[in-house]
Specification:
The chain has eleven helices and no strands. By secondary structure, the chain is mostly helical. The longest helix has 38 residues.
Length: 229
């Protein structure tokens, strides 16, 4: 069996491209920071942060256009941004307005760990979406891999690590929101998210490739196995 989910990891690699990184930094750090600095004295910090949240929402849209599809995760992130902005305006709490940025990764972490109550964990479905492009033949091949113990073990490990890492990252961003000045938080919070996400992607690639090599050594090659395009 060589069907350990290396394709899951490799599908994430484009997120580490220079263009993807520049887009992420621009929409999540640079433009929000400029917006808050320009508007906080006229509108107040909370309203300025609410307006600045438009840019991360646009980044979700830009990513969807670049991939030519809107995935479930993008919709979840966009919904969380909207909920966070509304809650910030209702409460008028500056610290909450800053801490709301941790909602997305925190909820994703909870979804990952909560999915262990389901027959198949969350990263199984995310990996299938990124790896198959919803091609019926590739989807069928991906589904067939679940019969292998090694594949199930790797998928579960990926789900657990991403879930725990994002919960810890969300907790750290909440602590930062309450401990540091506004302008520092605007830059530090999304930077932490990018660093954690990049680290998870790199680890996922290495772990999945190592699992693929172990599986190949144990079971030999399987016709049609390997990474999805």
């Amino acid at each position: 069996m060589t069907d350990a989910p290396a394709s899951t990891a490799r599908a994430q690699v484009p997120g580490l491209s220079v263009r993807g990184l520049v887009t992420n930094l621009t929409f999540n750090i640079v433009l929000p920071l400029i917006t808050v600095n320009a508007l906080q004295h006229q509108l107040g910090v909370v309203r300025a942060l609410a307006i600045a949240a438009v840019f991360p929402a646009l980044e979700v849209g830009v990513t969807a256009l670049r991939r030519r599809r809107v995935d479930a995760l993008g919709i979840i992130v966009l919904a969380l941004i909207v909920v966070g902005v509304v809650a910030s305006l209702v409460t008028g709490d500056v610290h909450f307005a800053l801490a709301k940025e941790s909602l997305g990764t925190g909820v994703f972490g909870l979804l990952c760990l909560g999915s262990f109550l389901m027959p198949r964990p969350l990263m199984y479905f995310i990996g299938r979406t990124f790896s198959t492009g919803n091609d019926p033949k590739l989807v069928a091949a991906w589904n067939d891999r679940w019969q292998y113990i090694e594949f199930r073990r790797v998928i579960r490990m990926l789900t657990a690590v991403w879930g725990i890492a994002y919960l810890l990252e969300a907790a750290a961003r909440v602590a930062i929101a309450y401990a540091l000045p506004v302008n520092v938080v605007i830059a530090a919070s999304p930077t932490l998210a990018l660093v954690v996400t990049a680290g998870l992607m790199i680890w996922t690639v290495r772990y999945s490739r190592a699992a693929e090599r172990r599986a190949a050594a144990l079971f030999g090659s399987v016709p049609g196995a390997g990474s999805a395009p």
